[in-house]
Amino acid sequence: MKSVNSVTLLGNVTRDPELKATQGGQSVATFGLATNRVWRDHTGQKQSLPEYHNVVVWGGLAEFCAQYVKKGKPLFVEGYLKTRNWDNAEGVKMFRTEIVVDNVVLLGVRDPADTKAEHAEEALEDAPVLEEETEPTTVIA
Fold this sequence. Notes:
Radius of gyration: 17 Å
Number of strands: 6
Structural class: mainly beta
Helix content: 10-25%
CATH class: Mainly Beta
Number of helices: 2
């Protein structure tokens, strides 16, 4: 049986990307993205429910995000769900589901003070494409 693991989100960045490198030298950036589900309840009142997502980006796209993605800005991302697990200091198994992103579209008004933003697409096109590491690795701050 076929299956699909695909995520498409349009939301607002909740924290600036944090860029790190694995022991193997691969760049990885993490940040948060908030989305809102909006509907009308049985009385016709508009309701809104925020959802917060943990986003992970690898390689050249991680470096691009670290430079151009900013807290509070709208962002469109595409990727897939991945759940990591580990044992914490007390030996309790922990789980975290993340969106591993392979496409980013910057949205909103360009910041006129950021002249680098003019070349953001060119920088992304020239960025080397690196595959996600398949083995668990330690991230060096």
